[in-house]
Model the fold of this input.
Amino acid sequence: MDFNKFSNSGLILQEHFILFAIYQHLQATVNQYFCYIYSVMFIKTLIMDNAEYWIQHLQLIPHPEGGFYREIYRSNIEADKKGLHYTFNGPRRLCTSIYYLLRSGEFSRFHRLRSDEIWYYHYGSSIKIVIIDQEGHKHVKILGQRAEKAEHLQVFVPGGAIFGAELLNNNSFSIMSCLVSPGFEFEDFELFEKEDLLQAYPKHADIIEKLG
Done:
């Protein structure tokens, strides 16, 4: 009988058992690592999906039209009154930009600016922006990232138009930026009373009841 053969087989089996044990240990370690990574990502997502997190970290304050904002840029270049529309009563900065946040149940109430404004989508729910132009026609634009649903990453609102906004999703929020040119001044900002809008645009009563 060849005892060396049995001895070698035993050594091979022992090596296999050792390799299998190492494999199981490594697999467990990898699984623990990925569980840790996924847990961290999940917790981070939960935190970031909280509007209060962004309000605090972006240092946002309540806006008169609704929602929260903070101005983050004001151009050093000044546009002289001579180069502006006659409705401006003095010089304005070339442009200004703010962070803006809306939560579900809040609205950007109907208001009007003398300047053009561009809204830029950043994060969260899609936003419905309703515009009533100077001829009284209503236009609806969706600010968001789903191009297949005709959403836009940026929406332009011409100066002189009346406009407001609301979120499309419940139990959510959205973060965007708004660039105004010529630069924003509160004296160029007009917030409307619901009754005045209903009288001026009765055919848009449904949306005025909500955003007025």
About this structure: Confidence is low (pLDDT under 50) at residues 36-44. The chain has two domains: 1-48, 61-211. The helical segments are 3-48, 51-57, 194-200, 205-211.
